[in-house]
Amino acid sequence: MTKNKNVLEWIEEMKALVQPDKVVWIDGSEEQLKEIRNISLACGEMEALNEEKLPGCLLHRTAINDVARVENKTFICSRKKEDAGPTNNWEDPKEMYAKLRRLFDGVMKGRTMYIIPYCMGPIGSPFSKVGIEITDSTYVVLNMDIMTRVGTDALKQLGDVSNDFVRGLHSKADIDEDNRYIVHFPEDNAIWSVNSGYGGNVLLGKKCFALRIASYQAKNEGWMAEHMLILGLENPQGEIKYVCAAFPSACGKTNLAMLIPPEVFAKKGYKVWTVGDDIAWLRPGPDGRLWAINPENGFFGVAPGTNIKSNPNALASTRKNTIFTNVVHNLDDNTVWWEGLDKNPPKNAVNWKGEKWDCTDGSKGAHPNSRFTAPAINCPCISSEFNNPQGVPISAIVFGGRRAKTAPLVYQARSWEHGVFVGSTMASETTAAAAGAVGVVRRDPMAMLPFCGYHMGDYFQHWLDMGKKLGDKAPKIFNVNWFRTDDEGHFIWPGFGDNLRILNWIIDRCEGKADAVETPIGYEPKPEDINLEGLDISMDTLKGLLNVDISLWKEEVAGIKEFYGKFGDRLPNELKEQLAKLEANLDK
Ligand code: GTP
Ligand code: SPV
Ligand code: MN
């Protein structure tokens, strides 16, 4: 399929290591994918769903011990330990390669080795990058086909001589939890993943390449790879402004990216267009502004909670050619179900573990991190700019997370430097997207804690440098929190579509059309500037959501100091100054 010697030599080397029975190059053709679908069905990796209700859709269940990203088994193996920084696991690359070689040695004996050339970003875009993933999983092949642009087009994009491609090696091996490793060698452009079959660990184009490796490349090449959705907000005059938002895993990116405006806004002509729901690659354009592309070609979205009211666009995206992972299998009509889809859990069903499920016994039928893999073209609100090789110009960057208290509904940073401080000090309650405890507040700078492929202190510096480059054309920076709770633990803000009310203020601020009030932490809207029309929320409740509790923020400062302490002399001075300023503001 290619004459590229760099590719061919690497493939030969990997073949010698894993010793497959058979080798198949993925060309991206419909005939070949059909064949692989059939192999996947025959070997039991996938089950076919109801062709009338869910045409082209498949169901997959992972092993019970393999349902989320494994951050304690994820490594950044830069040559020098200090280049991985205090927030990443590190081992000496030589030792790590030796350990992994033992695990990969002969691992594909009796199996087929699939070679997937793929392109992150639109084919033909100067911002796109090519990867090649070797895998022994048909689940990976079929998911990569949805999530990226696979096959001959990707090889064409790489060309016959370039060595600039990410080398991804994956084997599910025995799904042995104790020997599960997700390892990145940024200086070698390489990712080795073994003993997992779960999305974020094995779809190597996604978090492994498009964030961990790409963030390292971006720092060296002067751009940014971020855990951000990209949306276009169209106003009644037909003007579209683009916003990027970084929220940690399972904190609302897919939902915000596909938002349907509340009726009063929809009637006036407001619309939201989805460019991306998880990852953004950003660069300064010829006009000096920051431009974003979505490197992905599909959505690997959280299933639970997705329904006709919360996110009809996501639901519509999953009605054909979609792969469902770890959801409930409804045996009556061979469809799927998950908690929060509707109020009618199927009576005759199998849960995510593959067991007969009794929906009245109080157990969850779908795993909390169950997912759908849906083609972006299925999305009713996909942006006309989705495939634009130049991307879209960004007006605002929004940070956010899950905070029951402390963080207000929305505030604006006073400057780019202050915005970098706000992003770097983000915290959020952990979710089921990663193995480990759920609901624990942890610092998650720019929602990149699990995804930054180098020293996070240098990453903060890179953000500051990008701001200097962009100057007064830099996007404005904001922070939001949809997740404040009352004393009974209920969310106070309705969220979902109603988040448009906040996006509107954000865009108005970027356009110089809305006022703000100064608080110790940044600019906040005047409560009367948030349009509450058609919403059952009082002005007092809104004021409560915007309240900055000084004593909680003093605790926050203590938490930030402790976190910043990890970075030693690689913490930029600008951020120390911002912290001092926040502390002084709170003492005023
Ligand atoms: P990843 O794919 O893991 O990166 O997640 P994500 O950031 O795309 O999160 P997603 O949009 O899938 O939402 C995760 C969960 O948060 C779902 O259960 C949603 O129902 C819930 N959620 C999303 N937006 C809101 C909101 O505005 N308010 C509330 N209360 N919940 C929300
Ligand atoms: C996330 O966890 O942020 C996801 C899902 O988007 S995964 O691809 O598993 O990383
Ligand atoms: Mn994500």
TrEMBL record:
Residues binding GTP, per UniProt: A250, C251, G252, K253, T254, N255, R371, R402, F496, G497, D498, N499
Domain Phosphoenolpyruvate carboxykinase GTP-utilising N-terminal: residue ranges: 9-219
Cofactor: Mn(2+)
Keyword Cytoplasm: yes
GO biological process: cellular response to glucose stimulus; gluconeogenesis; glycerol biosynthetic process from pyruvate; oxaloacetate metabolic process; propionate catabolic process; response to lipid; response to starvation
UniProt superkingdom: Bacteria
Pfam families to which the protein is assigned, alphabetical: PEPCK_GTP, PEPCK_N
Gene3D superfamilies to which the protein is assigned, alphabetical: 3.90.228.20, Phosphoenolpyruvate Carboxykinase, domain 1, Phosphoenolpyruvate Carboxykinase, domain 2
Phosphoenolpyruvate carboxykinase C-terminal P-loop domain location: 223-584
Keyword annotations of the record: Cytoplasm, Decarboxylase, Gluconeogenesis, GTP-binding, Lyase, Manganese, Metal-binding, Nucleotide-binding
Enzyme class name: lyase
Catalytic residues of the enzyme: C251
Protein name per UniProt: Phosphoenolpyruvate carboxykinase [GTP]
